[in-house]
Design goal:
- There is one protein chain.
- The protein has 728 residues and is mainly α.
- The protein has a domain at 12-201 and 301-319 and 360-375 and 391-433.
- Helices cover 63% and strands 4% of the residues.
- It has 28 helices and 4 strands.
- A 4-stranded antiparallel beta sheet has the order 1-2-3-4, covered by helices on one side.
- β2 (543-549) and β3 (555-561) form a beta hairpin.
- Pfam families: Na_H_Exchanger (PF00999).
- One of its GO terms (cellular component) is plasma membrane.
- One of its GO terms (molecular function) is sodium:proton antiporter activity.
- It comes from Cylindrobasidium torrendii FP15055 ss-10.
Length: 728
């Protein structure tokens, strides 16, 4: 009989349950935790990992995997952190502004060369001074793990609502680019110390450091990543132009291309983190990928999942039992002192000394902020685990100093990560609380100062008011008090509230006038312009659209060059504002441009129909009617009557002539008046046609826009359909 036991409890199922439950609960209260308390997911996930770890609940214990084999645990830790960092630095490279590395390489060079070198030596000196068992070379290896800025923790701390409001965009971009670069840029510092430990001579170590590290790992890794990014950028454009890629596949590039760059570079043994960052930067170099995915929140969702998973794992992985170990010459108080001094001296002094030579750091306050925000997190865990793996692999018979370094490098780095998560993760709430706290000082005296009349001594020069009638409120102006107004002059008094309101209105008007007088080239104090470089440009029909950075933060300027790819008339129209608002205005404007030919054609058709109708009316007006034809026939009958006799004929002729002359005069007058009326009617109709012709050839305009394109001009000739001038 089969024993029924439905429960399947193992490490993987426990990890799924704990991770999924925490993400669900955190998501339910994420607005409160991230946007009100200003504590990001990194701190909460790290604390949750400690709670479920082996030193609290004991539910999730990475150190117990594979029977406590530390090599297996190190391998799992190394690969988990490698994937998280690769995706993180790739996302940073993608989300940087267009061609950011080309325009800001000077600032990045200062952060990666002198500032990282300073931090490396200072951290090594502090570790060497406070950890008795390690020599200076071993301290350099440990300090190399603490030198870089962690991209995952930096994104979780600096990417929140508070940072969006109070941290300038150029500082956020600079810190993000630095954190994307210097995890891979820490390899030269780490491998220089490792080669000096592993190799038999200093010359051989320098040769390996230059040939293997710089040429093969760093330079080759950057070339591989950049080549992949450029190739797939052109491939994506080709697929987009030929309708071969759907919208969902765009956002999948965040993780798929990052995994491709990391996996391919790792197979060759090069610097996979620098390769991933170079791939992301080259892939989004011209802003095409960002435009296609700007409405997608996939990157934010991906960052949230990877950040929570990685920090939960690190919280459970923390080796708390090694923080106080006599064999490793470690103690808690030594580690606390090292952490405090490292956080104070690793970046801040050198940043304050060199910020004048860093173009993107413009003020002393920005230098303090950039010097403070150098968090240590997942990147430090990855580099320390990699160092332990390299030492175990290349040292067949390690010395006592080398064994001490292998055993102590991860506990020291883990304690620094613990302190950095607490300090940097709680910095934003501290800044927010400090802005709301206002101190009020009060003075309290225990001595009585009453005089003989029961009044305090400090009121002996003041008038005592005993009744309400004694209170007089003077609302006169200073001019009346000084006697500058004559007695017969009256002045409208105003209450203090009205005066204050007028003063505020005047200040507001002065501020608006000053802002209007200020030229665009004069930056307002406090604004930090990001330049006016072209962000992107594209084609809309026959028109060219150029998007430029136009001011501080995310403000852009979008210019439409009409008919740029056709006749190139040189006319243009500009929109300026937030990127989303400017793009909405652009879309509305493009739709109007597309509707212009149809509107002009409809107007021309209506004008042609109206002209044809007027021509028919002219013809009907000018054609002879039946009465005129009858009258003409009657007038001509007297000439065709037969003559009966000569006398009668003469008398009849005279009689007919005398009778017909008034009628013929009336006929001539009537005919002349009709011709005159017909002429005036023709002139009026011609004037109407000319006006309609000018209106049909009008130009179509939009609000706030110059002339777009003239409509067709319709002209015609009115035929002369009046009576013949030779009629007698």
């Amino acid at each position: 009989m089969v024993h029924f036991y439905p429960f399947e409890v193992n490490v993987a199922h426990i990890a799924y349950t704990c991770l999924g439950g925490f993400i669900v609960i955190f998501g339910m209260f994420s607005l409160l935790l991230r946007e009100k308390i200003y504590v990001g997911e990194a701190c909460w996930a790290f604390v949750f990992g400690i709670i479920i770890g082996p030193y609290a609940a004991g539910i999730f214990d990475p150190h117990s995997w594979a029977g406590g084999n530390e090599e297996v645990v190190n391998t799992v830790t190394l690969e988990i952190t490698r994937v998280v960092l690769a995706v993180g630095v790739f996302a940073i490279g993608v989300e940087l502004p267009k061609a950011y590395m080309k325009r800001h390489w000077k600032s990045l060079f200062m952060l990666l060369a002198p500032i990282m070198t300073w931090g490396w030596f200072v951290s090594a000196a502090l570790i060497y001074a406070l950890v008795p068992g390690l020599n200076f070379l071993s301290s350099l290896a440990v300090a190399a793990c603490l030198t870089p800025t962690d991209p995952i923790l930096a994104a979780a701390v600096v990417g929140g609502k508070y940072a969006d409001k109070h941290v300038p965009a150029h500082i956020r971009h600079l810190l993000a680019a630095e954190s994307g670069c210097n995890d891979g840029a820490a390899f030269p510092f780490l491998y220089l110390a490792l080669y000096l430990i592993i190799d038999s001579s200093t010359g051989e170590a320098i040769k390996d450091w230059f040939l293997i590290l710089w040429l093969y790992q760093v330079i080759l890794g950057v070339l591989i990543g950049a080549s992949l990014g450029i190739a797939f950028r052109y491939l994506m454009k080709f697929c987009e132009n030929h309708n071969l890629i759907d919208r969902h596949s765009y956002v999948a590039q965040y993780i798929s291309l990052a995994m491709l760059a990391t996996g391919g570079t790792s197979l060759l043994g090069s610097d996979d983190l620098l390769s991933s960052f170079a791939c992301g930067t080259a892939f989004a170099w011209d802003g095409f990928f960002n435009r296609q995915t700007e409405e997608s929140n996939f990157s934010s969702v991906l960052d949230l999942l990877f950040n929570i998973a990685s920090f939960v794992y690190v919280g459970a992985w923390m080796p708390f039992d090694s923080f106080s170990d006599e064999h490793l010459t470690l103690s808690v108080w030594r580690l606390i002192v090292i952490a405090i001094l490292v956080l104070l001296l690793r970046r801040l002094p050198i940043m304050l000394a060199l910020y004048r030579w860093i173009p993107d750091i413009k003020t002393f306050r920005e230098a303090i902020f950039a010097g403070h925000f150098g968090p240590m997190g997942i990147g430090a865990v990855f580099i320390s685990t990699l160092a332990a793996e390299v030492l175990l692999k290349h040292l067949e018979e390690p010395t006592e100093q080398q064994e001490l370094l292998i055993d102590s490098i991860q506990p020291i780095v883990a304690f620094m990560v613990l302190c950095s998560i607490l300090v940097h993760g709680l910095s934003i709430p501290g800044f927010s609380l400090g802005r709301r706290v206002h101190s009020v000082s009060r003075t309290w005296s225990r001595h009585t100062t009453q005089g003989p009349d029961g009044r305090p001594d400090w009121t002996n020069q003041a008038r005592l008011v005993e009744k309400g009638e004694d209170i007089v409120i003077n609302r006169d102006h200073d001019a009346a008090e000084k006697g500058e107004l004559s007695p017969d002059q009256t002045e409208v008094s105003s209450t203090p509230d009205e005066n204050e309101l007028k003063h505020e209105r005047q200040l507001e008007r002065d501020t608006i006038e000053e802002a209007e007088r200020r030229s665009p080239a004069e930056p307002v104090e406090g604004d930090v312009p990001d330049g006016e470089d072209i962000i992107s440009e594209w084609k809309e029909g026959q028109h060219r659209v150029v998007e430029r950075r136009a001011g501080p933060g995310e403000e852009v300027e979008v210019e439409v060059l009409r008919n740029y790819y056709a006749d190139g008339d040189g006319s243009s129209h500009k929109f300026r504002g937030k990127r989303a608002h400017a793009h909405d205005q652009l879309q509305e404007y493009i739709n109007k441009l597309r509707a212009v030919p149809q509107v002009v054609e409809e107007d021309a058709t209506k004008a042609a129909h109206a002209i044809e109708k007027d021509i028919n009316e002219v013809k009907r007006t000018l054609s002879p009617n039946d009465n005129e034809q009858v009258q003409d026939e009657d007038d001509g009958d007297w000439m065709s009557e037969p003559e009966e006799n000569e006398g009668d004929s003469k008398m009849a002729t005279r009689s007919k002539s005398s009778k017909s002359r008034p009628s013929r005069r009336r006929k001539s007058a009537s005919s002349g008046s009709k011709d005159e009326l017909r002429g005036r009617r023709v002139d009026q109709l011609k004037l109407q046609h000319q006006r309609r012709e000018s209106s049909s050839s009008r130009s179509v305009r939009f609000a706030g826009d110059e002339e777009l394109s003239p409509g067709p001009s319709v002209s015609f000739d009115i035929p002369d359909v009046g009576p013949s001038s030779g009629r007698s």
